[in-house]
Amino acid sequence: MRKIVMKVSSVDKLRFQNYMMQLKSAESKAEADMYYRMAKKILEKGRKQA
Fold this sequence. Notes:
By secondary structure, this protein is mainly alpha-helical. The chain has one domain. It has helices at 10-24, 29-49. α1 runs antiparallel to α2 (29-49).
């Protein structure tokens, strides 16, 4: 997996990592989808700031 360089706060970076871990252990499709969307939102925020 390649490293993504994000221009977001360290809090957002931690949050993003947390969502990725949750995504891996998500039980249902809906749960996984929710974490995916939240992680994507952080990526979008990083893109806007860049």
